Amino acid sequence: RLQLHGFNTMSVDVKSYWRLLIDEVLNPFYLFEIFSCIVWTVDDYIYYAACIFVVSIISVGVALYEIRRQSETLKNMTAAHISSMVTVCRSGEVYENIYAIRLVPGDVIAIPPTGFMMPCDAVLVAGTCIVNESVLTGRLLNLLSYCESAPETKTPVPDLDESYCTDIHKRHTLFCGTQVLQTRYYGQDKVLAVVIRTGFTTAKGELVRSILYPKPIGFKFYVDSLKFVLLLFGVALCGITYCVYVYITKGVRKTDITRYDVMAPLVVKPVTRDTFLGVHGFDFAETGFEVSRIRINFSDLGIVRQFPFSSSLQRMSVVVRTLGSANMELLCKGSPEMIRTLCLSTSVPDNFAKVLRSYTMRGFRVLALAHRVLDRRLTWHQMHRMKREHMENNSSDNLLTAINVGRDCDMLPVGEKVILVTASSPKGTAPASITYSLAEMYETEIEESGVMSSSESDAIGLDSKHLTPRLHLALGGKTLDVIRKHFPQLLQRILVRATILARMTPDQKTKVVEEFQELGYAVGFCGDGANDCGALKAAHVGISLSDAEASVAAPFTARAGNISCVPTIIREGRCALVTSFGVFKYMALYSLIQFISVLILYSLRTTLGDYMFLYHDLFITTTVAVLMGHTEPYPHLVVHRPRGSLLTSSNMLSLVMQIALTAAIQLGALLLLMLQPWYTPVRPEGDEVIIPCWEVTVIFSISSFQYLILALAFSYGPPYRQPFYTNKLFLFAMMVLTAFSLVLTQRPTNDPRNSEPKNKYKKVELELSLEKDWPPLGQASTSEILSL
Fold first, then answer.
1. CA neighbor of 315 nearest in space, from 391, 223, 258, 413
2. DSSP labels, 173-239
3. Which Pfam families does this entry report, sorted A to Z (predicted)?
4. pLDDT tens for residues 655-710?
5. How far apart are CA 125 and CA 108, in angstroms?
6. Three-class secondary structure of residue 682 per DSSP
7. Rounded to the nearest 10 degrees, how much is the dihedral formed by the CA atoms of 395, 397, 399, 402?
8. Sign of the C-alpha dihedral, residues 510, 511, 512, 514?
9. Closest CA to 404 of 362, 358, 441
10. CB–CB of 424/433 below 8 Å?
11. How many CA atoms, within 13 angstroms, populate the side-chain half-sphere of residue 336?
């Protein structure tokens, strides 16, 4: 069996730092950074190449640390339960202790009395267990002050007339990762369970797989960024063509051109939100129910047989007998709709629907109770041989409580209609059907919608006159499965109007998230248990409401443990998106401005010096771009959302106009320089490139202020970010850089009129130009005179 099923492990590969480094460096971004370092090093621009190298090393180090930390956390989460010892019975009555990693399906394990974490999925066959399943369900019970998590009671599986099914026999199943708080048994008997699943096939294993292998998510911002970079690449090709033309026509052999580089990972990842799906827990509340006609002395009451709760049947029952009574009685509790279908119509109170609706609309979780007196001729042996359906003479979960919670959260504003959607699978000759009912009139169906069958292609029921913007749909997971299978043409229409989605399994939650994404929504999901990991990983924005397994799959973890953090996430996400667009456009325009500056100077056979490039690239652009992202989000949410695409007509028009304006200002400043009476144009000889000249000084000074002005222009404020002056670091940097640029403009380090040539022959020519009477015609010069 061990060779067939393998070891009971959920192996999570934790890569070494060296392997992670190789994978990370092969990322296209870092390949580009390596190429940039090589280019600038070959071009003797050592300072900038060193800066790129240092920033890239820091970025890679942080990324490696985060990836390794997440992998180790996930591995520790999966390895905690397999390192323990388990008592197992494999041959007769002989028990032995083995490591949990060697468990295989079919083993019979003994459950310790307290404090045992299940290392596998097992079916309870003897004894009773009280377990904490909050790891899987995420549900908390606030009424229990001594225990934060809601315990579940597991009972032995009865003699089955059908194949085992996890959904049907969940009451008897101990799931991997759950904590056994207490066991109950009779005498010296052990509490036993049969292993049915191990490793990745367990309930916890499926959740781990959903974390390790999520469905890929593509952000539109990244796609737009690549398209925009391709556009800039086309502009760069035009510039290169112009440079080649200048090279051929003017014979220039040296140039510092096309410094077209976006340094370091400066772009903040965008977080947008269109739809958030919440996971809610409902608190039980006492309703003040008073029993006036039934008086029972529980000390005289004996339990004869139990029928445990079944989620598919939505009820549980118990057969009891009072001491001295000739009859046994069947007591049943469950959902009100289910209990009503089991009762005689004459025994149901006339105000049943009214009372039920009043409680559910107030947010109460309602349970119905019923009893039946069994035939006095029914013996104890006959009663134990009877099937459950013969002793109990099925409706959807009551969504009215979920609707009430939605109204409390303002998801359903007062006055807007809510429709309950229920669907049933085909039964016999009856086709699949969908029923729409008004939540405010629980028993009244909408006349126009009625019931639809899968064979009626023209029966839509949800036409445009009913699906107004002020109408909401509420449905459960089972209904959604029926719609997917039998009414796929209605799935998208129902999802668009669905506001309340309740009673869903982990797979159903993940499917709903993916279906909303296919509709074009940016989906957020809030979850607090391991059963939410798949949906948290699949969503664009996952918010964990606990520090347990859900926090591993979600990029955000709420400290408060409730959904009050969602507005904060939305404000932060909108701020991040606007900041991303602003920084991206700033970096693009910075490259284009520098591109235009170099082209202008290159056409004049000169260029900026290395220190000038370093001042622009490192001190101005990098500092400003990093600090732009420190502006806080606006404290109030607005109705309209920010633009979600980078390649919109307004964005492209803004960039084109900015490029034209900056080019016009630089050309205008250069033209104004040429009109000055003291201006002397630069005249390099041969392949010489003269950097200290009037043209370079003017272009350098003008472009320095253009970079600073652009930073202010793209530092967007309300309604998504606070004003730029609230960002103290950014404001301080702008003031310092502006002051320093003014100093460089007023008092340049190398005045073109007083600059000293670097070449010796230039120095000699300068000396000769100052000595007008040399050589002395008609005079003899001795060595003593020359030395003087």
1. 391
2. EEPTT-EEEEEE-STT---EEEEEE-GGGSHHHHHHHHHHSPPP---HHHHHHHHHHHHHHHHHHHH
3. Cation_ATPase, E1-E2_ATPase
4. 788 888 888 999 999 999 989 888 888 777 666 667 788 888 899 999 999 999 99
5. 9
6. coil
7. 180
8. positive
9. 362
10. yes
11. 20
Helix axes of 17-25 and 46-79: crossing angle, nearest 10 degrees: 130
List pLDDT tens digits, range 228-265.
Answer: 667 767 766 776 676 655 555 554 433 332 222 222 22
DSSP 3-state assignment of 319? strand
Phi, psi of 166 (to 5 degrees): -60, -40
Give the C-alpha distances (Å, rounded to integers) separating 50 from 337, 626, 754: 73, 18, 32
Q: Considering only CA atoms, which of 197, 203, 257 is closest in space to residue 40?
A: 257
What tokens were used for 163?
């194949």
Q: Where does residue 731 rank: exposed (0-12), middle (13-18), buried (19+ CB within 10 A)? A: middle
The 10 Å Cβ neighbour count of residue 664 is: 10
How many Cβ atoms are within 10 Å of 2's Cβ, its own excluded?
10
Binned average pLDDT, 10 residues per bin, the chain of 788 residues:
82 80 70 77 78 82 82 76 80 82 89 84 88 64 38 76 75 86 78 89 81 68 68 69 58 32 27 32 29 48 80 80 82 83 75 81 80 75 70 55 74 81 86 83 38 37 47 88 91 89 83 89 82 82 76 77 82 88 85 87 83 87 88 89 78 82 91 88 70 86 92 90 92 94 78 54 68 67 53
* Candidate list 23, 44, 167, 283, residue with the active-site label: 283
283 is catalytic: yes
Rounded CA-CA distance 33/39 in Å is 10
The values of phi and psi at residue 96, to 5°, are -140, 155
Nearest residue to 536 via CA among 516, 522, 550 = 550
∠ CA(521), CA(527), CA(532), 5° rounding? 90
**DSSP tag of 113:** S
H/E stretch holding 88: strand 85-91
Rounded-to-integer distance, Cα 4 and Cα 293, Å = 61
Residue type at position 332? C
Given a contact cutoff of 8 angstroms between Cβ atoms, the answer to whether 420 and 395 are in contact is no
Q: Is 218 exposed, middle or buried (0-12, 13-18, 19+ CB in 10 A)?
A: exposed
If you search the block for the tokens 């001795």, which residue do you land on? 782
Amino acid identity of 166?
T
The helix or strand, by DSSP H or E, that contains position 452, with its residue range, turns out to be strand 451-453
| CA-wise closest residue to 374 among 449, 448, 304, 428 | 304
Nearest-5° Cα angle at 216, 215 to 222: 155
Give me 1's structure tokens. Answer: 């069996």
- Count CA within 13 A, CB hemisphere, residue 103: 35
253 CB-side CA count, 13 A: 5
Tokens 């772009």 identify what position?
A: 267
Instruction: Give the orientation angle of helix 46-79 with respect to helix 28-42, to 10 degrees.
Output: 160
CA-angle at 589, arms to 585 and 594, nearest 5°: 155
List b or e across 220-239, with b for residues whose CB sees 16 or more CB atoms inside 10 angstroms: ebeebbeebeeebeeeeeeb
Token pair of 148, please?
């934060």
Encoded tokens for 197: 């699943």
